[in-house]
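Human: We require from you a protein record containing the residue sequence and its fold in token form, and nothing else.

Assistant:
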Amino acid sequence: MKIKFFTVLLGLFTSLNMNAQELKSFTLEDLNFGGKNYRNFVPQNRNCVWWGDQLVRVESDACYLVNNQNGKETQLFTVSQVNQWAGPTKDIKVRSLRGASFPYADKSLVVVNTGERIYTIDFKSGSLKKCNEFVDGEYMLEMNTKSDAIAYLKDNNLYVSRGDQKWQLSTDGSREIVYGQSVHRDEFGIRKGTFFSNSGEKLAFYRMDQSMVTDYPLVNIPEVSFQPENGKSRIATLAPEKYPMAGETSHKVTVGVFDINTGKTVYLKAGDPTDRYFTNIAWSPDDKTVYMFELNRNQNDCRLISYDASTGEKTGELYRETDAKYVEPLHPIVFLPWDNSSFLMQSRKDGYNHLYLCSIGKSGSRMAGNTVSLDVKQITKGNWEVLDFLGFNAKRKGIIISSNEISPIQCNIFFVDLKTGKRTRMDEGSKGWHSASLSKSGQYIYDNYSEPNVPRNIAIVNVANGKCFSYFKAEDPWKGYKIPEYSCGTVKAADGTTDLYWRMVKPVDFDPNKKYPTVVYVYGGPHAHNVDARWHYSSRSWETYMAQKGYVLFILDNRGSEHRGKEFEQVTFRQLGQEEMKDQLKGVEYLKSLPYVDADRIGVHGWSYGGFMTISLMTNYPDVFKVGVAGGPVIDWKWYEVMYGERYMDTPQQNPEGYAKTSLLNTAKNLKGKLQIIQGYNDPTCVPQHCLTFLKACIGAGTQPDFFLYPGEPHNMRGHQSVHLHERITQYFEDYLK
């Protein structure tokens, strides 16, 4: 019996050992988003859109109607059928249905945009209702399904078409005079430049004059495969970028309003647009009024202004918010569907981003200075932030939001009663990060979420009773591979009181008795965070790759990052990088307290703001960090763009001490460890002047950083070049930190 028992144990140990040996290791082709196998290692998803209150799963080959109660799917149509219905010829017009939409809640119509054509098809009758075709040089900006109007660009000029009618809204469009596109370098929540009214009969649009803005001289170089005998020039060509640096002359923006019924355009009479920002354009329910937030260049005085859409005249100032540091409007107002005189507004005036219910004086009375009477009632409140407004449920007179009320690293979904302010949680799961979309009436929520140990779950939630139906659970796509340990915790910030969240990835086959090299991955800037309760605590795949190679990875969200309130973010005001470094050093203190971290082999890596932080840490704390890799870094904030740079630093003229204190040119002489700087040669965000001037400062100081360029690439490497980039980053740590 003893011999038999020993044999069983031996067999068990042999089996376990074989199973361990059978586990595979990842390559960058598996893990990196530019890799050839990347899609096989991302948790499976269900690509769904709403058709009114009905959910439709949209795949490349077919669309399926999903039963909201039990998840049963019924095929609506296939891509082959769409191609048959799209026209009499047999050529393939639509290759994928992934971008299909169902914008008409009461009609069996699907809209498929191929780029060259927009097909509107009745899938019940199997017939083509409309086809909008775009010829070479035409670029669609926005389509309105209520009026069937389309806004598009041609030769830099703005056009609107509806059926056989076409209107040209501008004639002077150029590289310097820009119409219908995002302005203010995508700050203040701006993502587009055209805004149809509710009926679709009017269009508000941006006009940006950037003729006075200095060109930054980016350069396009010929392709590697270029042959001189083909007659093309061998000389690199200029590809200048209009780049307003902090303290320099910026562009001027105005807002036009086009009326389809009159065929006329008026411009809002907002006064001189010099040193002002216009953002978050919204329409009144009756299409008679345009609202927008207007912000001074100092970004400390924000006002909500209304304009007559027919005349362009200013009709009132509804709201004003000031701050000693800065105000940052990010969201347009949204009118209640059951009350045309009330709207929701988001503001951080009490220190956290919350929702306010605003009611316009019903008598139409005006106060001094032509200011509209406005009653403001706070709807949400607490030391947490509203992360997103998802929509209305008119039947229950409430709204659906996402927030981090439960935890700073979670995102949860709530129904909010607008009368009482009572919040009811609407998602399933114990913790996690929930990304949701709302059906047309607000009756159902499509909740796509993950948790630290859950790759992806999708639930359909009935808002009326809060019941969640589990629609889809993804398998672990990393099953059968060597997986490191992912953990999360907190340390105190340099202020001694604030909790900062960190993520750690331990080496594969971790041995607590060993000493491991450690890489601190850092971003650290506003409008971003690295640690949350998603799968693997939001770990980047490169961290897993490095853990396979025997590294500890450590990531800390310092003060200055997002979603923790105004005080948490604004501690960096006029001194970017300084408090952030102090917090990162608190993380390093924690690392050094761990017996398995080799304090003599600590590296740091980051991109963009993280590149700035990487070089800041390498040169301000040269005895702490042995190796660093900085990508697309800011070196001196006076060379960064106006909107972002001046919000956090003021201008170089206003804050010379702060600019001098944060400039890395002054610390180039301190570099001791190995530092590699990587730059996209055509980076329009952190222009190459940053890196090149830092190199010059290092030459003057006698320090020796390494430098690598990606020709033709912007701020981030695209496609398969990202694999090459991460191979390079990895190898640098292998060469000098291992």
Q: What stands out?
A: Confidence is low (pLDDT under 50) at residues 1-18, 363-369. Residues 486-736 form a domain with the Rossmann fold fold (CATH 3.40.50.1820). The CA atoms of residues 29 and 35 lie 4 Å apart. The radius of gyration is 28 Å.
